[in-house]
Design a protein that fits this description.
The protein is 37% helix and 30% strand. It is an alpha+beta fold.
């Protein structure tokens, strides 16, 4: 009898446990306060997925009428479509459910999962908050003329709102369902194109330089397509108000130019997982994005005129080696226009760093100097001089894409070319120049700009070593064109996260995941583009010479895209600038969760 007592106690415990669980399940079902579902399988994960699917279906039944205007008109099964919309949350918040786990006599596992209706409403509210943050970012970029990002984030906000079961999404006393479409329409209606130059540059080539403005200010960035006589060609990009279009063959006789401004940005949808999941489920809003530009005069120019002859060099300061800088700039521009990459050694000598960078730049971007020329500014820098804003056209033939870019050439104090990078947009550059007037710290801000330009260029040249250094654990010393790692001292810097911000270990893990993915992208993708939708340089309080750099980075390629927040902590108190911290937070839009200068204390 004594031996059987433990067995009886065990059986009683199981019966009591099963009864308690059954009572709790019935209480949950009968309360009307929960969404719930059941999954049965020999595999616990599969059972859980089945339970989550039932939860999504139950939510959909309750809210499907709110989705009827959002789903594609090609499918009349609104319940099924609404379930799919709800499942776009399943990769995140709706997975945070409570579950009751029960073994069954046949060896299967039953999982009963549930989530309160209050929590689901809060999840919907979080998505609305994301829409508001996207809109705020779009508003900011719209003000700056960065219209490619502004339109993209407005449009992504519209897509996300189609998964929110609410008749009205309000923000600051406005209806986002009305306000966002009106914002897109206002941008499209107030972008104006004019022809700066229209030239026949060879027997079979016509080049047109366009100027794009928005409310009488140059457009910082804008994507569009144009009609070449057979089709609307792939992406073209306006940068700093300028875009170049090339016609060939029968298109040489066109007397107008037809343009579609891009607003859907299909390739960038992967920057936001929720947008990507919704893309094929919802109907896409349509906007009038068509423009016709009249072409009046075509000028024939002498064939084979070097593009470098059209560059005008300006300098506001006394530059003793200005003539040498000009000559070496022209050598570089002429080489991009006509040079054979195999001849780099003969042109630029034994500079292995510069030679390999030029070769990679030409290989991956097919750059062509823009023959319409322009003004290039010669400025003094920490280690020598720079020539800023050499216009070039990047040509990605495999996807029919051309983008206007501007180069900044770096020279040593003797006037020899030592490096080159892709410029930030003109509006950002001028903003930091203006800020430096108040802080009397242009040297530091200029160095930050040059580092970020070097970082951005590393993507275009597939320089994984530089990006590896960028996200390494060690501190980085900036010495001219070189970036050198430096072991960080014990207790030299302290990171104190606030609630909602990632811990130090999570920062390290996120950076390593990013690097691993980046290496794979470099190996597989033919086309890569990197830009910043926001960029701020902020002085750290009570630490003169220390700056925080806060950026939202937008990255896209042929089949991959991402978006995130990048933070740098830079110390200028030594002879050579030191970068302590690089943090990457993918798809983080809550400003309370973003790392900033107040999280760090430097002991030095």
């Amino acid at each position: 009898m004594i031996r059987t007592l433990p067995l009886l106690v065990y059986l009683l415990c199981i019966v009591s446990f099963a009864f308690t669980q059954q009572f709790k399940k019935e209480e949950i079902v009968g309360s009307g306060k929960y969404y719930y579902g059941t999954g049965i399988s020999q595999d616990e994960n599969q059972a859980r997925e089945e339970a989550l699917t039932e939860i999504c279906e139950m939510i959909a039944v309750n809210v499907h009428s709110k989705f009827e205007l959002a789903v594609s008109e090609e499918n009349d099964d609104y319940n099924e479509k609404a379930t799919s919309l709800i499942q776009t949350y399943a990769s995140g918040s709706i997975r945070d459910v409570e579950s009751i786990w029960s073994p069954l006599p046949d060896g299967n596992i039953e999982i009963f999962s549930y989530i309160s209706k209050t929590e689901v409403n809060a999840i919907f509210a979080e998505r609305i908050k994301l829409v508001r943050r996207l809109k705020a970012n779009a508003d900011d970029n719209r003000e700056k003329g960065n219209l490619s990002i502004a339109i993209q984030n407005y449009y992504f906000g519209l897509i996300l709102m189609k998964s929110v079961p609410a008749e009205r999404v309000s923000s600051e006393n406005s209806d986002l369902l009305v306000d966002i479409p009106e914002s897109i329409t206002e941008i499209l209606n107030n972008i104006h194109f004019s022809v700066l130059s229209d030239q026949i540059v060879s027997e079979n080539e016509r080049a047109i330089e366009l100027y794009a403005d928005y409310h009488d200010k140059p457009v910082s960035s804008l994507d569009f397509r144009f009609w070449d006589g057979n089709q609307f060609m792939g992406n073209r990009k306006v940068r700093d108000g300028v875009a170049v279009i090339k016609f060939f063959g029968s298109s040489l006789d066109f007397d107008d130019l037809k343009i579609h401004i891009q607003y859907q940005n299909y390739n960038a949808r992967k920057q936001n997982p929720a947008v990507e999941n919704l893309w094929d489920l919802v109907s896409h809003p349509q906007f009038d994005n068509f423009k016709i530009i009249e072409l009046k005069e075509v000028k024939k120019i002498t064939y084979n005129t070097p593009c470098s002859e059209n560059i005008i060099f300006n300098s506001s300061a006394n530059v003793p080696v200005q003539q040498k800088i000009r000559e070496n700039s022209l050598v570089f521009i002429d080489f991009l226009e006509n040079g054979n990459p195999n001849e780099i050694l003969n042109v630029f000598g034994n500079d292995e760093f510069l030679n390999s960078k030029i070769a990679a730049y030409m290989k991956f971007n097919m750059p062509i100097p823009i023959c319409f020329g322009g003004d290039a500014e010669i400025n003094e820098t920490r280690y020598g001089y720079e020539v800023r804003k050499i216009p070039v056209l990047h040509d990605y033939k495999s996807i029919h894409k051309q983008t206007t870019e501007f180069l900044v050439l770096d020279f040593d104090k003797e006037g020899w070319l030592v490096d080159f990078n892709l410029c930030l947009t003109d509006d950002l550059y001028k903003k930091f120049v203006k800020q430096a007037e108040y802080g009397n710290d242009w040297g530091n801000r200029q160095e930050i700009i040059k580092f970020i330009e070097k970082y951005r260029t590393a993507f275009f040249t597939r320089d994984i070593k530089t990006i590896d250094l960028m996200f390494a654990d060690e501190a980085l010393i900036l010495i001219g064109r070189k970036i050198q790692p430096r072991k960080q001292g014990m207790n030299e810097i302290n990171y104190a996260p606030f609630p909602g911000q990632p811990g130090y270990e999570q920062i390290q893990l996120t950076k390593q995941e990013y690097l691993t993915r980046q290496k794979q992208v470099f190996e597989r993708q033919k086309d890569i583009a990197v830009d910043f939708s926001s960029f701020e340089i902020k002085k750290k309080n009570n630490a003169p010479g220390v700056y925080g750099v806060e950026m939202r980075q937008n990255y896209s390629s042929t089949t991959y895209a991402d978006e995130g927040y990048l933070f740098l902590l830079i110390d200028f108190r030594d002879e050579n600038p030191l970068i302590y911290i690089r943090a990457w937070q993918p798809n983080e839009w809550d400003t309370n969760n973003l790392i900033n200068t107040s999280n760090f204390r430097i002991y030095k």
